[in-house]
Amino acid sequence: MEWNKTKTIFILAFLVLDIFLGFQYFEKRSTDHFAIIEKTDTLEEMKADGIKYGNLSDEAKIGYRITAEKKQYTKKDVDELADQKAKSTFPKTDKDDPVTLLEMTFNKPVALPKKDMKTAAANLVNQRLLDGKNYKLWSIDEETGKIVFFQTYKGKYIFQEGLDDSETIGKITLDLNDKNEVVSYQQSMVTSINEVRKETLVPALETVKDLYTQNMLSQNTTVKKVELGYYTQYPGASTQVMVPVWRVELEGVSASSKKKTEEEYLINAIDGSTLDHIEKDDKSSME
């Protein structure tokens, strides 16, 4: 009699367990199914709105939060630079306080050939500036006479668009005269870079989809580039904490002026939040 009761209890227990596991299985299948439908629907909506994004990966990557220290420039650093002199604000003796922004003038202007200005500027930075190989060309603006390099970590930019020169943490700005010669430059840098926390990153395609669902992509927008880098929200701090970010570069057409527009978003690659949005000037008419 007791055995029959025990057997019945076991049968009921296994029955309940089977029902629970079956429910879990079908719930997961249903969730995965709807996720696929939602993904497909969003991509179809983007296609209908004329959003072009190329071949973006939908696979999650592994990245790291990093920390770094602002480089403190001293008189000894300046003494190592040949054929250059520091501006008046720089420390004159070893006892003076160091600075985080190096401002230098070349004793003799350095000519850059217009035919291959990118290569010539990169060679100048690599060969004649402190730790120049840690930087990569970012932009050339012939109108303002500025050539900008950003510091990199493992080949990825430390993005600093929108920051004042006093806030930059890893940037070189070359100053050109009207003869296309480099006459001076400003430099900042971070050192002692450490990876402090491993993170699973939001895929590039998912990042663009999120921008679309948040109405940040207008019709007929072209996603020109999506690249991974680093960004700090507090550039004034002596110790920097930087997160991996997606820089999304967009090109579209203004609805009112019909002119080509360019803008970019810096998106936290860990949680998908928007860290910065930069709108650039309208370009020439598309008509």
Written account of the structure:
The protein has 287 residues and is of the alpha+beta class. It has three domains: 1-48; 49-67 and 196-287, Lipocalin; 72-188, TATA-Binding Protein. The protein is built from four helices and 13 strands. It is globular and about 85 Å long. The termini are far apart. Residues 28-38 and 283-287 have low confidence and may be disordered.
Topology:
Layout: H1 2-48, E1 62-70, H2 75-79, E2 84-86, E3 102-111, H3 117-128, E4 135-141, E5 146-153, E6 156-157, E7 171-176, E8 181-187, E9 190-200, H4 204-213, E10 222-231, E11 239-253, E12 260-268, E13 274-279
Antiparallel strand pairs: 1-9, 1-11, 2-3, 3-8, 4-5, 5-6, 5-7, 7-8, 10-11, 11-12, 12-13
Q: Indicate the multimeric state.
A: single chain
Q: Structural class, please?
A: alpha+beta
Approximate strand percentage: 35-45%
* SS element count, helices: 4
Give the C-level CATH assignment of the largest domain: Alpha Beta
Give the averaged pLDDT, no decimals. Answer: 85
Number of discrete domains: 3
**Sheet with the most strands, sense and barrel status:** 7 strands, antiparallel
Point out poorly predicted stretches.
28-38, 283-287
The CATH superfamily of the largest domain is identified as: YycH protein, domain 2
CATH topology of the largest domain: TATA-Binding Protein
Distance between the termini: 91 Å
The level of helicity is 25-40%
